[in-house]
Amino acid sequence: MDVITNIRQKAKTNLKTIVLPEYNDPRVQEARRIIEREGIAKILFLSPDKMDPAEKERFSLQYYEMRKSKGLGLDEARKIFEDPLYYTAMLAREGKIDGFVAGASHTTPDMARAAIHCLGVEERLGLACSCFIMTIPDFANGEEGAFIFADCGIVPDPNPRQLSCIAVLAAELGKKVLGIPPRVAFLSYSSKGSAKGGSVDKIREAMQLLRNMSVDFLFDGELQVDAAIIPEVAKIKKADAVLGGHANVLIFPNLEAGNIGYKLVERMSKGRALGPLLLGLNKPCSDLSRGCSAEDVVDCVAVTAVRAQ
């Protein structure tokens, strides 16, 4: 069973209620038909006429209290809640729905702000970030062609602690959603000391922080991407001691590298990129690329439903 089919099957075993607030996007409308036909989740469309006025006002006041120290005014808060996205996020915050998926017609910064501000960041690590589930046809490496790429959507230039936390959150998603033993590689232009620089030093510090956390998954770095995912190259570059070229979770040194990397792989390999899946929040949700297809929406809903189980 391929990765995508497996995720959809997992979602069907314990149906969760997922909201799609971008009700007027044709791709989202088509996705809803597929999800309901296949029984992947309980789907709610949230249009402005379906938002309860009293609840919207309550959410506006609550959001104002949460953000007034940042300079938000009450009138501005009320204006924000004209957008179903924020109303949806507050429903998730209160546990009235299990998760939500948006981003077909919202930018990633818009989606991230709504999710982070309304859902809140988990206290455990104190970091919000994102990842993509990548599936690559006719490529046996990784987890039979499946990888997790992080962070490709939220943290512009992660410091060592942030890099270590991104690795933990991405690895946990791999175990929860894909059911894989995570093998985490910190990517760089250097493999095990072949080059020097501030970025390399940052990765080495992140590695030490991860060791101090006593995590239960394999990790190594710094590694060039070919040494991370190709066993023959790992052996040549003497980077085969821990992962042996079998990494399935790739941690990028910054947002620039991550964003470029996932889009190159998606477009040049005819692969699939599911996400960005937002990590480190108190409730599960997923962003979408504005270039997404209806099938991408379906699969992000399935992932979000599995995370909520």
Question: Would you kindly provide a written description of the structure presented here, covering whatever features stand out?
Answer:
With 309 residues, this protein is an alpha/beta fold. Helix content is 48%, strand content 15%. It has two domains: 1-120, 3-Layer(aba) Sandwich (Rossmann fold), CATH 3.40.50.10950; 121-280, Isocitrate/Isopropylmalate dehydrogenase-like (Rossmann fold), CATH 3.40.50.10750. Strand 9 and strand 10 form a beta hairpin. It has a ten-stranded mixed beta sheet with strand order 2-1-3-10-9-4-5-8-6-7, with helices on both faces. The model has no long low-confidence stretch (mean pLDDT 94). The protein is globular and about 65 Å long.
Question: Which labels suit this protein?
Answer:
309 residues, Rossmann fold, ten-stranded mixed sheet
Please outline the helices and strands:
Elements: H1 3-12, E1 17-20, H2 26-38, E2 42-45, H3 53-67, H4 74-80, H5 84-93, E3 99-101, H6 108-119, E4 129-135, H7 141-144, E5 146-150, H8 160-178, E6 183-187, H9 198-213, E7 218-223, H10 225-229, H11 231-236, E8 249-251, H12 255-269, E9 272-279, E10 285-286, H13 294-308
Would you kindly provide a brief summary of this structure?
The protein contains 13 helices and ten strands. It is an alpha/beta fold and 309 residues long.
